[in-house]
Design brief:
With 156 residues, the chain is α/β, with parallel strands linked by helices. The protein has one domain. Strands 1, 2, 3, 4 and 5 form a 5-stranded mixed sheet that branches. α3 packs antiparallel against α4 and α4 runs antiparallel to α5. It is globular and about 45 Å long.
Length: 156
């Protein structure tokens, strides 16, 4: 009986990890996949995203995450290819803190980053690629994000 329970639990956990690990999102409302831009955010969601992303504790956490991944890479990999998971996480953190009113999904595949979702201004849309390129291991950026309709642009 114990073996069956362990087998079932392992299978359920494995499926959960596989389902969650494929895309990094800058906010809860961001698309679950890079195959779609998702639903355009309403003003309440945009303001909540901004509040979360500009919170000093969240900014420090995102910057700390980037630094920790860089330090682990420097310590253990020393010049080898970076994992897609690390690149994807760092790009997500970079976009989250620099484009606080966005809802973006990020996926990395062999250093090629795909970004979908919504931003609030043309300037934000144009900043996605250069921000992603700042992360070591990014080879190319495919921006499929769109500008959110009928929402006031970020003035900060």
């Amino acid at each position: 009986m114990n073996k069956l329970t362990i087998l079932l639990l392992t299978g359920v956990l494995g499926l959960g990890v596989a389902a969650c690990g494929d895309v990094a999102r800058t906010s809860r409302g961001a698309p679950d996949s890079v195959d779609t831009v998702g639903e355009a955010p309403n003003l309440d969601r945009v303001l909540k995203n901004e509040s979360d992303a500009t919170n000093p504790i969240r900014r420090a956490q995102a910057n700390s995450d980037i630094r920790a991944r860089e330090q682990r890479y420097n310590l253990f990999r020393q010049g080898g290819e970076r994992s897609d998971r690390n690149v994807q996480s760092e790009v997500r953190s970079k976009l989250e803190v620099n484009l606080p009113m966005s809802e973006l999904a990020v996926q990395a595949n062999d250093g090629i980053i795909t970004v979908t979702g919504y931003v609030q201004t043309q300037n934000d849309l144009e900043r996605i690629e250069p921000l992603a390129q700042e992360i070591r291991g990014v080879k190319d950026v495919n921006v499929q994000a769109k500008i959110g309709p009928n929402l006031p642009p970020y003035q900060g």
